[in-house]
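Q: Can someone sanity-check these two? First one:
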Amino acid sequence: MKSLENKNSRVYRITYETYSKFSNNLNSCKNLEEVSQVAVRFLKYLLNFHVFRISLNQDGNFLVYSQNNIRGEFSLISEEHLLPHEIKILEDGIPVKSQKIPSILIKDIPKINLVHPSLWCWSFKKMELHFTVSLVADANKPFDVGDIEMLRLISDSFQAKFQEIYLQEQLDHKNKSLLQALDLIKSQNAKIHKIVENQKQVIEERTKEVVEKNEKLLHISALNAHNVREPLSRIQGIVQLFEVFDDATCRTELVPKLIQSSDEMDQVLQEVIKTATTELTQLKAKEL
């Protein structure tokens, strides 16, 4: 009896040490491929099974890990593509033990290697996330209710690691989206800066053009104010003298001066018109 107790104690110790190694290695995994490698390496020492499968709900889809003794693989599927017993257990939560095994679970296992195989399935919930765990065991690799506690520990470890990797991928995706948005903002800012610089240049050119036009208009105005004003003032003065002098004096003295001043004013006006026409034509040409 004591020998049996010692044997059981060694078995429990070895199992615990193996689980500790499995858990530590799983915690250090950075991606699903590494998780698969750790699972293939350690699960066969912790549980008796021909097939191990865990399906974890991730935002409406299910991350599925399936493993036989030598190979493990991941897939992402919708709920409708889960196996029938998985869909059922998610609905009613009742554990499954059945001899009806979906062919897809044992497609890679020669039938000769299976002796009275059974399908086991449980549904668990952790952190508001539902997941199922399925096992195919037989007489050669028996599974019983005493192994459920170890199965639960293993399942929790898988769930925690899956969730960690999933959240990290979501974070990486959001960071990538933010970087893309930042690049887009930088690109748009560069375009805006270029538009602003072009507008500044256009404003400077238009301002310079307006200044040039104003200078020419002031020049024309100066011609009108100075050149035209002088002969016009003389004409106005002569006209006022007509009321002072007699007719003979007006004809002999004032009329010649009036004619001379009128001729000077005509010349000035022709010069002003010519200058204004030339400069205004140049301004109009620049606008076109």
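And here is the second, same format, sequence then tokens:
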Amino acid sequence: MAWPRLSQRGPLLSRFSHHHVVVFLLTFFSYSLLHASRKTFSNVKVSISKQWTPSAENTSYELPEEIWSSNYLFPSAEEATLFLGTLDTIFLFSYAVGLFISGIVGDRLNLRWVLSFGMCSSAVVVFVFGTLTEWLRLYSTALYCCLWIANGLLQSTGWPCVVAVMGNWFGKAGRGVIFGLWSACASVGNILGACLASSVLQYGYEYAFLVTAAVQFAGGIIIFFGLLVSPEEIGLPGIEVEANPEEDSHRPLMSGADSEDEYEPNYSIQEGSTHQAAQAKAISFQQACCLPGVIPYSLAYACLKLVNYSFFFWLPFYLSNNFGWKEAEADKLSIWYDVGGIIGGTLQGFISDVLQKRSPVLALSLLLAIGSLVGYSHSPNDKSINVLLMTITGFFIGGPSNMISSAISADLGRQELVQGSSEALATVTGIVDGTGSIGAAVGQYLVSLIQDHLGWMWVFYFFILMPPGSRCYHNANRTSLVDPTSMSGSPASPDPCPTRER
């Protein structure tokens, strides 16, 4: 029965030290700051579009007409909007490529160094893109594209590193609710970015980029001096060597075996070793792709992230464009989508811990996501109703997205086949999130095209097709493989990558 096992998780809390709390908070806010800088761009799209077109009303600057006319990039707001969508696509494609690379790099270098470098260098690029170019009146589509490609590559260092660090500190028992709560870092970053942007937008959109870049740079410095990558760094046992004879009742949660008598630890490093992280070898990219569940969940996440990031990039613009609401007000209202994602990720993670399975929770949430999208697409021009439907949509879209990108990625990277090789975690996370970002990248360009030619309703029709596609890949995983995200059930299937060192 699942309940007796669940009731024995209480001792796990006693093993959480203040180091676990510090790691939780530092990784949480480091990725929140990365997401805040991305959110700034989506929140100021209307202002940027006006600045780039000659028909805009110059409300922020007192410039002569000839100077104002020579600054514009596009002859119409529609073309400016299409270019903004192109920038989103460029960012996500470079971000996706960077994720595949960053996961491999993160498993071979110090995760703290990689994360700190990514945060600080990305902050510099964001400052140049949004602030310096405006101060110097330097408008160039080629420059914007190059800077945003660099920003995508640099920001890709964040997610594989923070998930790997969290996976090093927190075991599978209780991971659903812990990672569900922790994965709210992206939504909190969206909220933080929206608040920072709306608070200084009246002075010009360049100050929104300036504030978020400065805060992100400071966060990168703190990460460099304050983050502990793994318990072994301070002499604590790793999560793979925490078990002892008195804790046999917890082992089925981590092994996936039905019977406690059949369970045998599969550690490649002796218990008590304080150098496990240094001795373990990172698996290759091909071997990580061969692990059960990695490809199906990656493809499912591609469909889901397409919708989630479309809301992330376009929701403030949609509220302002479709309902005529002020840009700063639309920024604040869009926060409620992220609130729904926070609640959804945490609650669904808790339920998956209770059931000791992730798959049923994901399947039900994706089914209900279709109804929530239909409901939101018919939202009236009423802020209260719109906020309610927006929150529900965030619950069923953002919740599963958070689970796949955090808890399930950690489950896949630490499943039975790779125990003893913690350096698989960042690579697997990079594959899952990288594939998701490719789907999101394609989606952002399609959103701008569909909206420009057919209108917003057809955009929502496009979104409604994505959750069923995600469920198809998810069901393929359930029928073809032993579910590696299940904390109970049959033993793991044979190693699909026999060439990997065991």
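A (reply): Looked at the second one. DSSP finds 22 helices and no strands in the chain. The domain at 19-56+74-226+282-480 is CATH 1.20.1250.20 (Growth Hormone; Chain: A;).
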